[in-house]
Amino acid sequence: MKSVLKFLPAATLAVGLALSAVPAMAQQQGAPPKASPAAIAAAKEILQIKNAGAMYAGAVPGLVDKTKIALIQQNLNYQKDLNEVAPIVAQQLQGRQNEIGEGMAQIYASEFTEQELKDLVTFYKSPLGQKLINSEPRAIGLSMAFMNSWAQNFSETVMGAFRAEMRKRGKEI
To answer: Which residues are in the DUF2059 domain (predicted)?
Structure first.
């Protein structure tokens, strides 16, 4: 069974990218008015305190590389050119990952009131908030490892149940 931890960085990037698209979709669907500048500033401060930028820092080079690989698979004759073009494209698009942070701030500002965001900033700056920020990645990692272990063990239980039921039908698997 593949480890969930192996997919966590990709999943995190995918979620971050998906979240950045939400404000645009919501605006097209008659979204509520934009949050106040103070609410957005507080949301950005929360994201900065939580180091959310690390989640999507490699988005541009990562997507450029994935696109290059896909293009090479479709155009083997152009491999040399595509390898040369990739750094140019990455340079041209450098900084666009910040759009993700802007979108995330808009989402936070739409989900929480300005006062709630300010209260969260105060919390995250408190000793308990700092402990949460520092301890949460380890707690999540250990939780994911536990879930993987549980899933492996439980899959054996499920397999045993299937075998038992199939045996009742006279069929060995």
So the answer is: 99-155
